């Protein structure tokens, strides 16, 4: 499979799916759900220029330190200053994981069975609207501003536009400050529709830049780093 990928006989998407499978990740277990990378950092431009390296996330760094400020002022500070009085817990950079069951339900809340699973997790109701997945640009900005949020993506971001739409009409509440009702996911300006977002996002995954740097992220998640 590696050789096929290197020879470009299979796509980046196919290679990541197969890597996830070989690593024991499966759609049948939310705790070991397939994991895909954030690949872009431009969610505000009117047009997405895949020939411009500046639109892509740095795939050589964990998502928690893509923002250099977080790396220096928070992640390293926490590691260097953490001491467990009982000597049981080792020093650590991140208190959460880049992929977990709650994170999968967070992204896929608008489609079953994830809606029901989310409600069960929240003791019979939807979580506070401000904590819902309601905007792709805002979610990326949260990665930049909040060093505690280190979620990567799920495969659905590259093939399943329906998860971005509230087709079942669930009452997901409204944001506290803006009073905006949480409904369909707000898309980047360069996406005209959920289908357009998926199409362009998939093109970004298969772009020359990502093809040349994807191995760096793979080393972080599946490899020796």
Automatic annotation (TrEMBL):
The keyword Membrane does not apply. GO terms for molecular function: protein kinase binding. GO terms for biological process: intracellular protein localization. The keyword Signal does not apply. Residues 1-225 form the BEACH domain. One of its GO terms (cellular component) is membrane. Keywords: WD repeat. It comes from the Eukaryota. InterPro entries: BEACH_dom, BEACH_dom_sf, BEACH_Domain. PANTHER family: BEIGE/BEACH-RELATED (PTHR13743), NEUROBEACHIN-LIKE PROTEIN 1 (PTHR13743:SF115). This is NBEL1 protein. It comes from Casuarius casuarius.
